[in-house]
Design a protein that fits this description.
Layout (H helix, E strand, L loop, with lengths): L8 H4 L3 E6 L9 E6 L6 E6 L5 H13 L5 H38 L1
Antiparallel strand pairs: 1-2, 2-3
């Protein structure tokens, strides 16, 4: 039967993830991630924007633009208004269906 040696808890500790942004506006090309082993202090991984493949880079940019962050306050306001208008469309659709349902039920009862 094989024996399994478990390392001390300090060595089993997951690395600390540090997210570093060189811009207050959240631009994805100015963000990086540093993983450090807390027990030894060694750098486990250092991931900058350029280390990711093209698909992941495009996804980071797409999310940044899609959420309105690219346009600052005005971009986020436009994104918020677009989300609000989608909710209004849902509400008006349900309201119109409800009114149509009530009218049909009233005609059938007569």
């Amino acid at each position: 039967m094989a024996e399994h040696h478990r390392p001390p808890s300090s060595q089993r500790q997951a690395p600390a993830m540090l997210f570093i942004s060189e811009s207050h506006q959240g631009r994805p090309d100015l963000k990086s991630q540093l993983n450090v082993n807390l027990a030894s202090g060694e750098v486990v991984t250092w991931e900058t924007f350029s280390t990711h493949n093209l698909g992941k880079q495009l996804r980071f940019w797409a999310r940044w633009v899609h959420t309105g962050e690219a346009g600052g306050f005005i971009g986020q306001t436009i994104a918020g208004l677009a989300a609000l208008s989608a909710a209004v469309l849902v509400w008006t659709g349900i309201s119109m269906s409800w009114q149509r349902f009530r009218r049909r039920k009233g005609v059938a009862a007569k």
